[in-house]
Write a structure and sequence with these properties.
alpha+beta, 10 strands, 4 helices, Aminopeptidase, 8-stranded mixed sheet, two-stranded antiparallel ribbon
Length: 167
């Protein structure tokens, strides 16, 4: 599945990419492909998702998700080139896939320090529905590489769950 976009950007299903390319992307941007959150431990390089490729074929955006029953959970979203609509397009494509698989809602987890993500998702119709105090502390027991502080200086402590009901 390949979608042609504006400005010669391509969106491709992650199955169209070599797993090693996806693993390398997660290692560069997350320290590895493993994501530890309150809903589980995920190997992001093995999940369903979409990537945005630039004209050279490099990944400039990547989203992964899990569909279970009527719910789609976004596990990761990265946009390397900010303010170009890459993250928005990946969200839209994932929501469309969720609708096609009869999902009624999309949810995701972010952390208290990620002010940019909180703003981004709320502008796209996601609502804050739960806060899990100290959830990141529990995640660090499994993945000690999770930093104590974000680049903005905020301690990384809590998980925030956001949800969007699909039409």
């Amino acid at each position: 599945m390949v979608f042609r976009e504006k400005n010669n950007v391509k969106i491709v299903h992650t199955t169209k990419l070599e797993k090693s390319v996806i693993t390398h992307f997660f290692t560069d941007h997350w320290g590895g492909p493993q994501m530890v959150i309150s809903s589980g431990i995920f190997q992001c390089d093995e999940l369903d998702g979409f990537a945005v490729l630039n004209e050279k074929g490099d990944i400039v955006g990547l989203i992964t998700f899990v569909i279970s029953g009527e719910e789609c959970e976004i596990i990761s979203l990265d946009s390397i080139e900010e303010n170009k609509g890459i993250g928005t397009r990946l969200i839209q494509q994932s929501e469309q896939t969720a609708r096609e698989q009869d999902c009624r809602q999309v949810k995701l987890v972010t952390t208290n320090d990620n002010l940019h993500a909180l703003q981004f998702y709320q502008k796209r119709g996601y609502r804050l529905v739960h806060i899990y105090p100290n959830a990141v502390e529990r995640a660090r027991r499994i993945k000690p590489a999770i930093p104590l502080f974000a680049e903005n200086g905020i301690p990384i402590c809590d998980e925030i769950i956001l949800e969007k009901t699909l039409d």
